[in-house]
Design goal:
The protein is of the alpha/beta class. The chain folds into 2 domains: about 210 residues, no CATH class; about 80 residues, Immunoglobulin-like (Sandwich). It contains 10 helices and 8 strands. The strands form 2 sheets. Strands 1, 4, 7 and 8 form a 4-stranded mixed sheet that branches. β2 and β3 form a beta hairpin. α3 crosses α7, α3 runs antiparallel to α8 and α3 runs antiparallel to α9. It is elongated, with a radius of gyration of 35 Å.
Length: about 300
């Protein structure tokens, strides 16, 4: 599977783990049970397709490795015969045989190893008498030629393998599309409507389960304006999130935003000199921006509002 397919499959796996964790509650919900059951069927089908794809790829890899090892064995036999003869008879073409030792062929890239093997066959063709005299019979030479041909075909990836691989990938995509349709068109809306208010802990767990791993992006998850009772903008408001150190937010027009909060419940405390402290408990949902406007009230309503600094 490609990277995107694997990410979506991990999401489905996390969703099913969530279902297992909250099985006792979800089993009492017939419609949710049907949706999760369908997700389980799709997930199992994708796993089976992926295993078939892996077996197909492993089979081709094993064939290539076996064919290459056989060709290397035959090439080394031929080269050893020819090199021995060359040194003994002072036959220069055989003395200068390069890159046909076992270590060299084993560590070379497959394409490079084939180039060295083909060059050895060319040397045999140029010196047929000496080749036979060295101990390389016609059968051994033909054996090497056949094995080079077999490895070349496997390196080109047979058409049948490409077809099988393409069909499996297409079937995986079809199943993932069905899964995403169930999640985005049915399950998300149902879980939000059914459990966001009645069982927030379960709903937050559901939201966390369906979050996809991705490259972190700076997303505005909360945005709004700071104003006073008259609607005038307030700037330089100190905002503390979940008890962390407060940071000043809010520009000249009172607008503010908060980035990269994880999904779930958060406690926000807004403070500004001369105004009452404002506290909000919020629920962050992935891929949604929460609009949160804060209206500040003077601490002492008997005194006129302080002018903005």
């Amino acid at each position: 599977m490609n990277v995107n397919q694997e990410r979506v499959l991990r999401q489905a796996q996390n969703l099913l783990l969530f279902r297992s964790t909250y099985k006792e509650s979800l089993d009492l919900d017939p419609l949710a049970t049907q949706m999760f059951d369908r997700v389980q069927v799709i997930y199992d089908n994708i796993l089976a397709l992926s295993a078939k794809q892996d077996r197909s790829g492993k089979s081709l890899t094993d064939q290539k490795n076996n064919a290459m090892n056989t060709a290397i064995d035959t090439c080394v036999d031929c080269a050893d015969f020819m090199s021995s003869y060359g040194h003994f008879q002072n036959f220069d073409p055989f003395v200068k045989i390069d890159n046909c030792k076992r270590t060299q062929l084993t560590h070379a890239r497959e394409e490079e190893a084939l180039i060295h093997m083909r060059k050895l066959v060319d040397v045999m063709d140029d010196s047929p008498v000496q080749t036979t005299a060295s101990g390389v019979a016609d059968e051994l030479k033909q054996k090497l030629i056949t094995e080079i041909f077999n490895v070349s075909n496997l390196l080109d990836v047979p058409k049948e393998y490409r077809i099988v691989h393409r069909d499996i990938t297409a079937n995986i995509d079809t199943s993932l599309t069905e899964y995403k349709g169930i999640l985005n068109d049915s399950l998300k809306a149902y879980m939000r409507t059914k459990y966001q208010k009645s069982t927030p802990t379960l709903y937050i767990a559901f939201i966390n389960a369906i979050e996809l791993d991705a490259i972190p992006q700076r997303k505005r998850v909360i945005a709004g304006k700071f104003t006073n009772k008259a609607g005038d903008p307030i700037r330089l408001v100190r905002v503390s999130i979940d008890g962390q150190k407060a940071i000043s937010r809010g520009g000249d027009k009172g607008g503010y935003f908060i980035q990269n909060l994880p999904a779930g419940q958060h406690n926000l405390v807004f403070t500004r000199k001369a105004y009452q402290v404002e506290t909000r408990n919020v629920l962050i949902v992935p891929d949604e921006t929460l609009i949160l406007n804060i209206e500040f009230i003077l601490e002492n309503i008997d005194e006129p509002e302080l002018a903005e600094a």
